[in-house]
Amino acid sequence: MLDVALVSLIEDLIEKAGADGVIEFWQRVGENLANRIGKEAYMGWTSFNVAVREGRTAYSIEGEVTPLTDLAITDVDGDIVGYIYAMRQCCYLPTVLRVRYSVGELSKADKAVAQEYNENFHNIAWCNFCVFHERFREEVAKNIAVSGNPLECLLLATRGFDGETRISSKNLAKININPEHVRALLRNYECVYALIMRGARLKEEA
Amino acid sequence: MESPEHARMPESNPFVDIATHLFLEDLSTKVGTAGLNNYLISLANNLAANMPEEEYDSWDEFLEAVRKGSSILSSFEEVHPLTKHCMVTRRSPFERGWREYAKRVGAFSKVHREVAEYYNQRIRPTAVNSLHIILQTFRDAASKRIRVAGKPVRVEQIATVWVDGEKKIAAEGRLPGLLKHAGITRTRLGMLLRSNSDVWLLVPE
After folding, report:
1. Taking the CB of the first residue and of the last residue of chain A, which one, N or C, has fewer CB atoms within 10 A?
2. DSSP codes of every residue in chain B
């Protein structure tokens, strides 16, 4: 019931701190959680991707993550510096349904937080939880080293409860991937992100 | 979860529960133990206030709704009426989230226990951690939204057991009366606490 109660908590916090205050709160909580989980190191992408598949990385706390190993991200020399990862189901979807079956309707406060985030931070959120989620992933990436290099997480695309999609042109441009590839992924997945080696010289930057 | 209503309700993603725990921990650094206690109480009250009211013609009809999971009192937990007035919850609705927290994040922050101690001293001595403040306050507030044969109903916590086996039982002065109303003995209560997470009383006002 804690997840359904969270919806009331957000409503209450919006009254006290405003939507921007909730965003600040969520981002701080995302950082704290990532830091409490701690550091991880992998010998290379193969061992990291196996760990993701087996649910052993910090990202596994979110639920089932699929490493799309056919979608490698390469640097200017053609070396693999990252991959695309995807979740079939948004972490918050069960909560949305649980609210529907217990309370009746998701609070407007939820949308208000997402809207504030989309207007002022990154136009990719569907619900208040996306705010926490994006920061959490970014912080976790800093704590994971693959072949000795810390990672960077770029949220690429999301599909909302109603089927509408959001694609981050800013982040897609960084990794030089065609938006149509990601759009096709959204038919199967609800949340798509990239993990790359921090500081990698990507093609777009060449 | 066995009934059609329970089958329809998906299980929450424990990640959302963990995030909420961290949210509460962050909040406690700003408002302190007393402030967090007030926050949890108002959170549970708000949640119940947002849920639809209920009315039943008879106590039997109400108990059937509780058993099937169609009453707000059994929206988040699987409740089994043991007698007409003694309810047991088999498994804490917070167990999955807590297990995942312990597995992925580490030891449960002590703030959850500290706020429960505060609550136990001031309200009723039946919370092991912060989550029980939410659950017990929610049941209280939810029961006020139900009418059975035109009369309101009342809930009282008899005992709570956490996942690690720690128990909290109603105050010694109140326990005999609660057990009598519930229609169980102290020995029976001890037996119930081996395999259930909550034992509570549900009576017409």
Report:
1. C
2. --SHHHHHSPPPPHHHHHHHHHHHHHHHHHHHHHHHHHHHHHHHHHHHHTSPPEEESSHHHHHHHHHHT-SGGGSSS-EEESSSSEEEESS-TTHHHHHHHHHHT-SPPTHHHHHHHHHHHHT-S--SSHHHHHHHHHHHHHHTTEEETTEEEEEEEEEEE-TTS-EEE--TTTHHHHHHHHT--HHHHHHHHHH-SEEEEEEE-
Average pLDDT over residues B180-200: 96
pLDDT on residue B4: 55
Domain count, chain A: 1
Cβ neighbours around B35 below 10 Å, total: 13
Quick one: closest CA in B to A22, which residue? B23
B53 touches A at CB < 8 Å: no
Domains and CATH numbers, chain B: 4-204 (3.30.1380)
Give chain A positions within 8 Å (CB) of B43: 5, 8-9, 12
What's the whole-model pTM score?
Answer: 0.87
Taking only the tens place, the pLDDT of each residue in A15-62 is 888 999 999 989 999 999 999 998 999 999 999 999 999 999 999 999
B195 touches chain A (CB under 8 A): no
Between β-strands B86-89 and B198-204, what pairing exists: parallel, antiparallel or unpaired?
antiparallel
Which two three-digit tokens encode residue A57? 């990385």
Q: Do the chains contact at A1 and B42, CB–CB below 8 Å?
A: no
Q: Are the C-beta atoms of B35 and B60 separated by less than 8 Å?
A: no
pLDDT digits (tens, 9 = 90+) for A139-196: 999 999 999 999 999 999 999 988 889 999 999 999 988 899 999 999 999 999 999 9
- How far, in Å, CA of B149 to CA of B152, rounded? 9
Residue A155: domain span: 2-205
**What is the DSSP code (8-state) at residue A203?**
G
Q: Is the pLDDT of residue B3 over 70?
A: no
